[in-house]
Amino acid sequence: MNLFNIINFKEKQDLYNLLKLNSSYIKDLNRGTMDYKGFDNIMKTKYKKRTTDKVSSLIDNMDLVSSVLDILK
After folding, report:
1. Residues 2-18: pLDDT tens digits?
2. What is the mean predicted confidence (pLDDT) over 16-45?
3. CA 19 to chain CA centroid, nearest Å
4. Which helix (H) or strand (E) holds 31?
5. How many CA atoms lie within 13 A of 50 on its CB side?
6. Mean pLDDT, rounded, for 30-34
7. 1: pLDDT strictly greater than 80
8. Is this prediction's pTM over 0.70?
9. Is the dihedral angle over the CA atoms 29, 12, 15, 61 positive or is it negative?
10. By the 8 A CB rule, do 15 and 40 touch?
11. Quick one: which of 2, 18, 44, 45 is 20 to 30 A from 55 by CA?
């Protein structure tokens, strides 16, 4: 693993936590079978940090507020 990746893992807490939970990713990153961007995509999928996940969450919250307001009418 190069220095750039090590520094990024220390700066981004979610990446570091995922590495601690699944140490098999360290082996793949050291061997070069997985790159940093691929690991970042895995983290975003696991912790629901993709843009589509955020939009979906926003829509769910809007539906909840709408239903609460309908009940209060």
Report:
1. 788 888 888 989 999 99
2. 88
3. 12
4. helix 24-31
5. 11
6. 82
7. no
8. yes
9. negative
10. yes
11. 18
The average confidence (pLDDT) of the chain is 90
Which amino acid appears at position 62 of this protein? Answer: M
Q: Give the position of tokens 């539906």.
A: 63
Quick one: CA dihedral 20, 34, 30, 4, positive or negative? negative
Q: Which residue has the tokens 């009940």?
A: 71
Q: DSSP letters of the chain? A: --HHHHHHHHH-HHHHHHHHH-THHHHHHHHTSS-HHHHHHHHHHHTT-SHHHHHHHHHHHHHHHHHHHHHH-
**Residue linked to tokens 């220390």:** 10
